[in-house]
C-alpha cells in the first residue's frame, strides 16, 4: 500500500490550483521510487469571508470538515504551503491533525515558514520538518529519505532529532540559497500541462486568476525577501511560455493571469518578446498582472509596449524612501526613475 502524502494550500481569493504544489508533485513523481511508494494529493481551499468568525470555523471554513477531508488516521505526511495570509490557518491544521494522529509527519515550506528557520519549531510540538528555499529538489529527496528515516543529506531541511533541531543549511545566506538552487528551470515540468491542474480549471463553476512563472530569481538580496539570491536568474523557454499563456488566456474559467516573477522585464530581449506576445496574441483581452521594479525596465520599446497593454496591472514595489531604512534592508532605490 502506498504512503499517503497531502499538500495543503489556502488562498486569499479564487485562484487556479497552486502551481507551487503542482510543481512539487510533478517533480517528485519524476522519481520512480516516489511514484512506487507514494500517493500525493493536493488539497486547496479559498477563504470564505461570508463565514468569518462563526463558531467552529477557521478562515470561514468548517474545521471539522477540513480535518475529515485530510483523513489523519490514513495519512503519513502533510505538507503546508505557508504565506503571511494563511500561516495561522496552517498551524491550526497541523496542531489538530497531530492531536488525532501523533505519528503524522508535518512538513512546512513557503515564504512565511521558510523565513522563520529554527523559530518555527518553538511554536508547538506539531512542527516536524521545514524546507527553506526552493523546494523541488529537497521535497523529492525528503520523500526518498523518509523511506529509510534518514534526512541527513537533504538540502535546506530543518528537522528534529533527539529533541534537537538539525539544520542542513550553511550559515552563509548566499550558500544556503545556492544549496537548493536549481541551475535550470527550463526542464522543470509545467503546471499548465499537468492533467490534475487542467481538470481543476475545467471543473470550476467560477472564474479565477491563474498564476504563471516565466523565470525564477532576483539580482537583489533584500533582507525581508525570499526571492533574491544574487545567483543567475533562470528562465523558461520562450516557446513554452507562449504555449502556457495561450492556454490560460484562452481558458473560459480564467479571468486574468498573474505573472509571479520578481522582475519579468529585467532582460531586454525577454521583455520585448513577452510584451509583443501579449500585445498581439492575447486575443481574449484578459488582463495580465505583473510585479516589477521600474529600475530594471530600461528598454524604450518595452516601456512603450507596457503602456499599450490595456487592462493590465503593474505593481511597483516601494518599500521605503528613507535612506537609513533602505540601507538596513539592503534595498536599492532610485527616486528619479520611480518619479519619472
Characterize this entry briefly:
With 340 residues, the chain is of the alpha/beta class.
What does this structure look like?
- With 340 residues, the protein is of the alpha/beta class.
- The chain has two domains: 3-179, Cobalamin-binding domain (Rossmann fold), CATH 3.40.50; 191-339, Transcription Regulator spoIIAA, CATH 3.30.750.210.
- It is built from 13 helices and 15 strands.
- The chain is globular and about 60 Å long.
- The chain starts with a strand and ends with a helix.
Based on the structure given, which CATH architecture of the largest domain is correct? 3-Layer(aba) Sandwich
The end-to-end distance, rounded to whole angstroms, is: 62 Å
Q: Trace the largest sheet across and list its strands.
A: 2-1-5-6-7-8-9
DSSP strand count: 15
Helix content: 25-40%
H/E element order:
EHHEEEHEHEHEHEEHHEEEHEHEHEHH
The CATH class of the largest domain turns out to be: Alpha Beta
Rg, please? Answer: 21 Å
Q: What oligomeric assembly is this protein in? A: single chain
Count of separate DSSP helical elements = 13
Ranges with pLDDT <50 over ≥5 residues? none
Shape descriptor reads globular
CATH superfamily of the largest domain: Cobalamin-binding domain
Largest sheet geometry? 7 strands, mixed
CATH topology of the largest domain: Rossmann fold
Looking at this protein, list some descriptive labels.
340 residues, alpha/beta, Rossmann fold, Transcription Regulator spoIIAA, 2 domains, seven-stranded mixed beta sheet, 35% helix, 20% strand, globular, metal-binding, rSAM, iron
Amino acid at each position: 500500500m502506498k504512503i499517503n502524502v497531502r499538500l495543503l494550500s489556502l488562498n486569499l481569493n479564487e485562484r487556479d490550483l497552486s502551481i507551487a504544489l503542482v510543481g512539487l508533485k510533478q517533480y517528485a513523481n519524476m522519481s520512480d521510487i516516489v511514484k512506487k511508494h507514494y500517493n500525493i494529493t493536493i488539497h486547496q481551499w479559498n477563504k470564505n469571508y461570508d463565514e468569518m468568525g462563526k463558531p467552529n470555523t477557521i478562515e470561514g471554513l468548517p474545521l471539522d470538515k477540513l480535518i475529515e477531508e485530510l483523513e489523519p488516521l490514513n495519512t503519513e505526511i502533510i505538507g503546508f504551503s505557508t504565506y503571511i495570509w494563511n500561516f495561522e490557518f496552517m498551524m491550526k491544521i497541523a496542531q489538530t491533525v497531530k492531536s488525532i494522529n501523533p505519528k503524522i509527519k508535518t512538513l512546512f515550506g513557503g515564504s512565511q515558514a521558510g523565513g522563520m528557520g529554527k523559530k518555527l519549531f518553538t511554536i508547538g510540538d506539531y512542527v516536524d520538518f521545514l524546507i527553506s528555499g526552493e523546494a523541488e529538489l529537497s521535497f523529492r529527496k525528503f520523500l526518498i529519505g523518509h523511506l529509510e528515516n534518514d534526512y541527513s543529506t537533504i538540502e535546506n531541511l530543518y528537522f528534529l532529532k533527539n529533541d534537537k533541531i538539525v539544520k542542513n543549511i550553511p550559515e552563509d545566506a548566499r550558500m544556503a540559497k545556492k544549496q537548493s538552487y536549481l541551475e535550470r528551470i527550463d526542464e522543470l515540468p509545467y503546471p499548465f500541462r499537468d492533467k490534475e491542474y487542467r481538470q481543476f480549471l475545467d471543473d470550476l463553476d467560477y472564474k479565477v486568476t491563474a498564476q504563471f512563472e516565466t523565470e525564477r530569481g532576483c539580482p537583489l538580496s533584500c533582507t525581508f525577501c525570499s526571492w533574491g539570491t544574487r545567483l543567475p536568474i533562470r528562465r523558461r523557454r520562450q516557446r513554452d511560455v507562449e504555449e502556457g499563456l495561450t492556454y490560460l488566456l484562452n481558458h473560459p474559467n480564467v479571468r486574468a493571469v498573474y505573472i509571479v516573477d520578481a522582475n519579468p522585464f529585467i532582460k531586454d530581449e525577454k521583455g520585448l518578446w513577452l510584451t509583443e506576445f501579449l500585445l498581439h496574441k492575447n486575443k481574449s483581452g484578459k488582463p495580465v498582472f505583473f510585479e516589477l521594479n521600474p529600475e530594471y525596465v530600461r528598454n524604450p520599446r518595452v516601456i512603450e509596449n507596457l503602456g499599450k497593454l490595456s487592462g493590465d496591472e503593474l505593481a511597483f514595489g516601494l518599500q521605503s524612501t528613507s535612506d537609513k531604512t533602505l540601507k538596513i534592508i539592503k534595498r536599492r532605490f532610485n527616486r528619479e526613475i520611480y518619479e519619472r
